Structures are given as C-alpha cells and as structure tokens.
Amino acid sequence: MAKEAVKRFDTQDLLEELKIYVQVGHHVNVLNFLGIVTENMVHGEFFVITEYCRFGNLKDFLLKHRHAYREEGDDEIAENIGVRLRPQRYTFGKIDLLYWSYQIAWGLQYLASRDFVYGNLSTRHVLLGEGNIVKLSGFGSPCRLQLFNKLTPQSILSLERIAPECLQSDGTFTSSSDVWSYGVLLWELFSLGCDPCWGLIPHGRFADSFECVSTLPTPKYANDEVYQIMRHCWKQEPQERPSFVELCSRLNCLIPRSMLKVCLYSMC
Questions:
Q1: Residue 78: which of 256, 267, 222 has the closest Cα?
Q2: pLDDT tens digits, residue range 25-72?
Q3: Side-chain-side CA neighbours of residue 190 (13 Å)
Q4: Rounded to whole angstroms, how far apart are CA atoms 227 and 218?
Q5: Which residue has the higher pLDDT, 164 or 103?
Q6: Which residue in 25, 88, 145, 202 has the fewest CB atoms around it within 10 Å?
Q7: Are 145 and 111 in contact (CB under 8 A)?
Q8: What's the N-to-C CA distance of the chain in angstroms?
Q9: Rounded-to-integer distance, Cα 108 and Cα 119, Å
C-alpha cells in the first residue's frame, strides 16, 4: 500500500510517520514499512510504502459483517484459522475475537519493549490482513505513536481511552496507560464494534470518563473470563494493571488447544 504526499504539510506528516516506522522496526502485528519512493521529492511528493491489509480496519469490518458472527464449538474451529476469512464468506466467531485480541496484545508488548507508547488505541487503528493477521497502524494520524512522555491528552480524541492518571497529572502516557486503552479496545471487539460510553461523557468532563469505563457492562459476545481481563485493565492504579506480557499469557490460555499451533504458525 502506498501513501502519496501531494502537499507540503502532508510531506512533513509522512516524514514524521516514516521516522516512526524506522524506529519501530519489524513485527508481525505492526504494520510494516516496506520502502519509499523519492523520485518527485523535490516537488514535495513521495510515496511511503507499507503492507496492504485487504480487509481494512477492525471497526469497519465488525460493523459491516456483524451479521456473519456465529458461536462455535471446539470441533468447528479446528479448521485453519488463517483461511477463515474468504471473499463473500466472512464468517467469524469468538475464536477470531480472541485471536485478534492476543495478536494486538503481542504487538503492544513489542512496542512497549522498545519504549513506545501507542496512545490512542482503538479498533479503527487495527488492520486485518491475509491469514487472519491483525496489525497496529495509525502511526501517521494526529494521535500517532510516540516515545514515552511525548503525548498530550489534547491529542487523544476519545476520553474513555485515556487512563485516569493521564488526565490528573502532566499528561504523561506510559505502557500502563496503553493497557487501559487496550481494555476499552477489547470491549469494542466483543461488542462487535459498538462505541463505549457513546454520548455519556459531557464535553471536557475528564472525571466522568473513568466512571463510565469502570461501569461498562459485559459486552454481548464476551464470557466472564474475557470481561475480567477488561476489568483488570481498568484498575485505577497503573501498577495494579497487568502488563502486556501477562495479557498475552492470559489470552493464550483462552484459545482452544487445537488452535494454538495453527495460530503460532500463522504468525511466524
């Protein structure tokens, strides 16, 4: 997939995005940088080339294909998870939601290991590609990935995604605040794209965001184990939240044994 800069301010944005891609490096669950075309850079035009994810972002996918969701037994999910999404047949189920959740946590764990904080995590910033692989993207958005201490609450569009300590201090974001946002993303996933706290947080009322998130009910397609993971992500004290390593471990235990080898093979 190529992105073209056609205006000078677009060029600057793409250059910033390019720097981030170079710093992040390669990971299966992060949208990977493939190259750059600078032939017309003297005119303020160039291409940043990244991987192409044919199914688009998870938010739109879930909303468009929610009618294709179905509950499955362990026997039914024994088919290769990497070929479950086919043109004209987008059947998916709880195993896919768990698989995507695991991959997103793994990608975020990688970013945390490289001292990056994502900031504005949502299903809109997660792309779904071939083999049922999901990738974190959105590095060039106004809420782009940054090094620790570089984000401000004003750059985040959805208050419920901001951990309470980020609103009560100098706006420093950390891996622990990403865990809070990840819990909100899980709620989005297991409600098949619904918006948490939609219309419930008055403009500028930061304090209401914590109350709204902490009282979110179990989403329709989540079991109690998944909901408890969300609740742990929403602990008010950052040190009480699980790390992404812990989240990967807990989600790994929820994926049926028959699928584990297939999942790991698909992500290699």
A1: 256
A2: 899 999 988 887 777 766 667 777 889 999 999 999 999 999 989 876
A3: 26
A4: 6
A5: 103
A6: 88
A7: yes
A8: 21
A9: 11
Residue 119: band (very low, low, confident or very high) from pLDDT cuts 50, 70, 90: confident
DSSP state of 237: S
Place of tokens 């079991």: 223
241 known member of a binding site: no
DSSP 92: B
Tell me, what DSSP letter sits at residue 66? G
**Residue 10, burial from CB neighbour count under 10 angstroms (0-12, 13-18, 19+):** middle
Six-digit token string for 25:
């490096």
More confidently predicted of 74 and 52: 52
CATH of region 53-69+90-266, choose from 1.10.3210.10, 1.10.238.10, 3.30.300.30, 1.10.510.10: 1.10.510.10
Q: Which residues of 15-39 are buried (b: 16+ CB within 10 A; e: fewer)?
A: eebbebbeebeebbbbbebeebeee
Task: Find where tokens 């605040």 sit.
Answer: 177
**pLDDT tens digits, 156-175:** 456 667 787 877 766 678 89
CA 99 remoteness from chain centre: 13
pLDDT band at 200; cut points 50, 70, 90: very low
Max mean pLDDT among 77-86, 89-98, 196-205 falls in 89-98
Burial class of 243 by CB neighbour count within 10 A (0 to 12, 13 to 18, 19+): middle
- In terms of C-beta density within 10 A (0-12 exposed, 13-18 middle, 19 or more buried), how is residue 268 classed? exposed
pTM of the model: 0.82
**DSSP code, position 229:** H
Helical axes 244-254 vs 94-113, angle rounded to 10°: 160
